[in-house]
Each structure stands twice: as C-alpha cells, then as structure tokens.
Amino acid sequence: MSRYMRRAQIEVIPCKVCGDKSSGVHYGVITCEGCKGFFRRSQSGPVNYQCPRNKNCVIDRVNRNRCQYCRLQRCMALGMSRDAVKFGRMSKKQREKVEDEANMVKASRLNGLNQAQFTTYQTNGYNFQPQQQQQQQQQIQQQQQPQQESQFLTESQLYSPNSSIQPVPHPVSLLRAVEFNPINLGKAITEAHLRTCLYSNEQIEIFKRQILPQEQVEIYKNLTHRQLWVEIADKITLAVQQIIEFAKMIPGFMELSQDDQIMLLKAGSFELALMQLCRVFDAESNRVIFGNMFLPLEAFATLTDEEFHLMSAIFDFVKNIQRLNITESEMAMLSALILISSDRPGVKEVGEIQQLHDRILTALKLEMGINHAGDEHILKRFVEQAGILRSLSARHIRVLNAFKEEAPEIEFPALHKELFSIETETILPNLH
C-alpha cells in the first residue's frame, strides 16, 4: 500500500486522545494536529500541570484545553512518546492493524443509506470495536480509582448504557412480528429500546447530581454559531446511530423492503431523537444532557432567532410528553409507532407497514391499560403531540438547510448528511 493510501486510511480513524479529525501517527499514536502539538510542547521542558478537579476529566474536542494535566495523562496512557518517532515506518503487523481499524470505522459511519451499504449495515451491524476496546481500558483504570459523585462520566460510560450488554441485534429481531402475541411483542420492543438508549436511567441520575462548573457553561456560550451547529449535529448523529439499531431490533422491521426501511428512517429519525430527548431533559432545572453533562439551555446562546424559536418549541413538546408520565415500555412502543407509519411519503409496501403498525398499537394499548388504568384519553393526547412532532421535524430540516446555505464549507457527519439532506425536505409533510 502506498504512503498516501496508508495516510488516507489513518485519517479515517479519529484522534485517539480527543476524538477530533486525525492527521496521522504522531509520537506513536493516531492523533489530530492539536494533540500532536500539545504533546510536543509538553515534552519541550519541565511542566507542572495541575488538575482543577479529580484527575479524571473527560478529554474531547470541545474541552481538551481545559485540563492540561488530564490531557497529558491521556496522551501517555495511549502510548505517546518522543522515542516513538525513532522507530520509523510501521511494521507490517501495525499497518494491518490500522487498516482493519480504519475499515471498521468506515463501516460504523454508515456512509449513506444506499442499498448496498444498508445491506452491509444490516448484516454486520455497527462495529465500534476500536473505540470499545479503548473504553474498556478506561473502565479498568476507573475501577482502580474511587468514584465521586461530582466527577464527570467518561465516554465509556456515556455510550455503553448497559456494560453487560453488547450492542448487537438480539435474536428477537430475527423473528417476525406475527410470531409474537401482543404482550411478547411489547416486551421485545421494550428490550430493543433499553438496549439502544444512549443513557440508562442510572446514568441520567448521576448526571443530575453532578455540579457543573460555570466555566464549562461558558465554553458552550462562547462557541461560534458554526461551532455550535457542529456540536449539535454530532450529538444528533450519535442518537440516530442508536435509533437505527433500535429499528433493526423491532420484530418485523427487517422484513420490510430495504427501500421502505430507508424511507422510514429518513422520515422518522429526528422524531425519534426528540422522543429520546424526553428522557434526558430536566424540566425543573431547564437542563438537558449534552455530551457528558447536564447543560442549561442558556448555554446555546449563539442560535439565531429562528433556531431559538425551534428549540423552544422542541422543549415545549418534551415537557408535554413528560407530563404524560409514560413508562419506558410505553416510550419504546410509541417510538416504534412513530417510526413505522404507513403514511410516510415515499413508502411502497403500505399494507405491510400498516399491519406492523397495528400490531404495535395493540401491544401499546395493552401496556397503557395496565399503567394508566382509568385514563382513557392518554393515547389520544399523545396522538395530538405526534402531529406537533412531525411539524418540528419539518422545521428542523428548514433551519438546517438555511444554515447549510450560510455555511456551505461546514462538513457534517456522513450519516447526518444522508438522513437530513436537502432532499429530505421533499419527503416531509409541508407543515408550518
């Protein structure tokens, strides 16, 4: 493989230190230019970095400059060393390892939901193995240190809602929905929901107890409009990755044609992301989980007026859903109903989608009959909110397209671009 090809392979893999776009192997580790320069400066003379918190700060693209001590410790833990530059070219074994990791990263990004890639995706699922291996190492290190409520969760805690469960499709996803009675169908969808949530209820409670330093809020307040959009797009993409996994595990979804699967995901992914938002918003403090912290809404200070009005409408919707006091099982089945809707523009096998929708609706009615006995109108109230949900999705596409016209040079994640493209506006209802 040519030197150029190897470099292209390496740059697919995010920076091991902060997750930003990498530029190659520096001091023995795949990193971005920022972390390369930071490590070089730290080795140029005596340093006396101090951690202002618990020596366990999360190092990511946004806050990597906030704690030099933890950033340097992370560099060294990953194996960065001045001596590493003396070893010259990578060995054949090292090259093969990098190539394998690059291929897995490419697969995990689901570069567009076209037919061939979607087939590969549904067969193999996402494979985040390189990141998971790194996260497992972090977990081992953390277990050796006492945990304190005030410290921030690490990436390994964020994106593995249940560490004992691997993010692969459960056997129930291989069964047809018609093979399930309504009760078991509801249980299967609930399991799919719990296995694919970005955050468990326990993690959400930990976030609530954390005390967020004001300087952390100021970091987000001081982001430019474009930087904030990139951060929001990254978080939405993380949520959508899990939503696709959820869809794959709904009994019957994978039996639909690939064209219909794609159309349902394009039309419904943002709506399901807003449903997930209902789990991570604290109405009492007006805060939402954003990355690895409960962030007050005031932190999104650089939104335009139109974007701010959309954000306000979104959280009004979230508050209305929270007032319904629905359970996790009901949340799961409501999400499945939103996704599997036969009236989505562009779907072809309307009858099959409607049959699956009706089976899920039957399961949901049974569940609501148990948890909301005497409340005959709860489902009707949710249906009313579902109309608002579609309107919010259409508004999101419009503000996104307006931003893309303003900042055409901004590069969004591939999955985000595919699901929320300009063309997506044509498959959404024209709601105002």
UniProtKB/TrEMBL annotation:
SMART domains, alphabetized: HOLI (SM00430), ZnF_C4 (SM00399)
Protein's UniProt keywords contain Metal-binding: yes
Subcellular location as annotated: Nucleus
Keywords (A to Z) from UniProt: DNA-binding, Metal-binding, Nucleus, Receptor, Transcription, Transcription regulation, Zinc, Zinc-finger
GO MF term (any one): zinc ion binding
Domain Nuclear receptor: 12-87
InterPro entries: NHR-like_dom_sf, NR_DBD_ROR, Nucl_hrmn_rcpt_lig-bd, Nuclear_hrmn_rcpt, Znf_hrmn_rcpt, Znf_NHR/GATA
Gene Ontology cellular component terms for the protein in this record: nucleus
Keyword Secreted: no
Domain of life where this protein originates: Eukaryota
All copies of domain NR LBD, residue ranges: 181-422
CDD domains hit by this protein: NR_DBD_ROR (cd06968)
Chief location of this protein within or outside the cell: nucleus
Gene3D superfamilies attached to this UniProt entry: Erythroid Transcription Factor GATA-1, subunit A (3.30.50.10), Retinoid X Receptor (1.10.565.10)
Family: Belongs to the nuclear hormone receptor family.
Protein name: Nuclear hormone receptor HR3
Species of provenance: Candidula unifasciata
